[in-house]
């Protein structure tokens, strides 16, 4: 497949490199800063730099728009007339309404929300199909995405919460585990580095259990002995965790609406 990627920042470069693992794919990239596009092209022989939007769309069957929101809105006015009905547009900007996108293109369109775990060609990638997409269009896009992840179709009003779980999820989980490692160090029993190694190994093993078909509840029941130390620890989690995750979803929702100013965290 001939795939075009507009924007080679974190998301665009990750998608280009993930698809480029398949040598049969021809990946075309374009970026406002040519040096960044050139750097991505050097990472795989089947990634090439297009001369501009017109060149990229002319060469591509599937086009990903992976810029920041304000750049994406501007570029859509230029990109829309270049796309043919037989092509497909996938926009990774969650804040752009799918109806707004569809008004500006003649081809089927979708919103696609990737995750950093696609670097490992794994995890879940969210797909919100446009109203004009036929069953064949949906199948074609999801077939392409299935090479690098498990596509999961969502409605537009599900994207924020689903993104918290999948796209933002790796960072949220990593932060929780890092705080756990810091708390382990504070007991005086080990360093944070050792605690992180133990947690990483446990998480890797737990992932294999989940992939074998076990659920979160299954794992809890296998570990938790009535009256034992695990049950005692779970009591504290059940008392504190629900409020943490409720606030998390509320904060990301407010931020997506422009109502929250986030102060950058150190480290």
UniProtKB/TrEMBL annotation:
Annotated Pyrroline-5-carboxylate reductase dimerisation domain ranges read 156-241
Specify the signal sequence span. Answer: none
Q: Which Pfam families match?
A: F420_oxidored, P5CR_dimer
Highest taxon listed in the record's lineage: Bacteria
Q: Which SUPFAM superfamilies match?
A: 6-phosphogluconate dehydrogenase C-terminal domain-like, NAD(P)-binding Rossmann-fold domains
* UniProt-listed PANTHER family: COME OPERON PROTEIN 4, PYRROLINE-5-CARBOXYLATE REDUCTASE
Q: Which GO terms describe its molecular function?
A: pyrroline-5-carboxylate reductase activity
* Similarity-based family: Belongs to the pyrroline-5-carboxylate reductase family.
What name does the UniProt record give this protein? Competence protein ComER
Could you give a single Gene Ontology term from the biological process aspect?
L-proline biosynthetic process
Q: Where is the Pyrroline-5-carboxylate reductase catalytic N-terminal domain?
A: 2-79
Q: Which InterPro entries match?
A: 6-PGluconate_DH-like_C_sf, NAD(P)-bd_dom_sf, P5C_Rdtase_cat_N, P5CR_dimer, Pyrroline-COOH_reductase
């Amino acid at each position: 497949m001939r795939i075009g990627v507009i924007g080679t920042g974190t998301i665009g470069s990750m998608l280009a490199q993930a698809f480029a693992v398949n040598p049969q794919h021809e990946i075309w990239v374009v970026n406002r800063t040519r040096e960044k596009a050139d750097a991505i092209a050097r990472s795989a022989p089947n990634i090439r730099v297009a001369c501009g939007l017109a060149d990229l769309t002319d060469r591509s069957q599937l086009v990903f728009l992976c810029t920041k929101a304000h750049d994406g809105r501007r570029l859509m006015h230029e990109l829309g007339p270049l796309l043919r009905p037989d092509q497909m547009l996938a926009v990774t900007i969650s804040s752009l309404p799918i109806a707004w996108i569809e008004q500006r293109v003649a081809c089927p369109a979708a919103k696609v929300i990737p995750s950093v775990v696609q670097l490992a060609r794994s995890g879940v990638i969210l797909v919100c199909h446009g109203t004009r997409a036929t069953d064949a269009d949906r199948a074609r896009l999801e077939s392409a995405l299935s090479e690098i992840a498990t596509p999961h179709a969502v409605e537009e009003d599900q994207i924020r919460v689903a993104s918290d779980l999948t796209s933002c999820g790796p960072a949220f989980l990593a932060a929780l585990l890092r705080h756990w490692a810091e708390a382990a160090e504070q007991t005086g029993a080990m360093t944070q580095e050792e605690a992180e190694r133990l947690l990483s190994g446990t998480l890797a093993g737990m992932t294999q259990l989940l992939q074998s078909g076990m659920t979160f509840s299954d794992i809890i029941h296998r570990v938790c002995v009535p009256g034992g130390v695990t049950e005692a620890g779970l009591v504290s989690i059940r008392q504190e965790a629900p409020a943490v995750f409720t606030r998390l979803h509320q904060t990301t929702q407010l931020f997506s609406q422009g109502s929250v100013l986030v102060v950058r965290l150190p480290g």
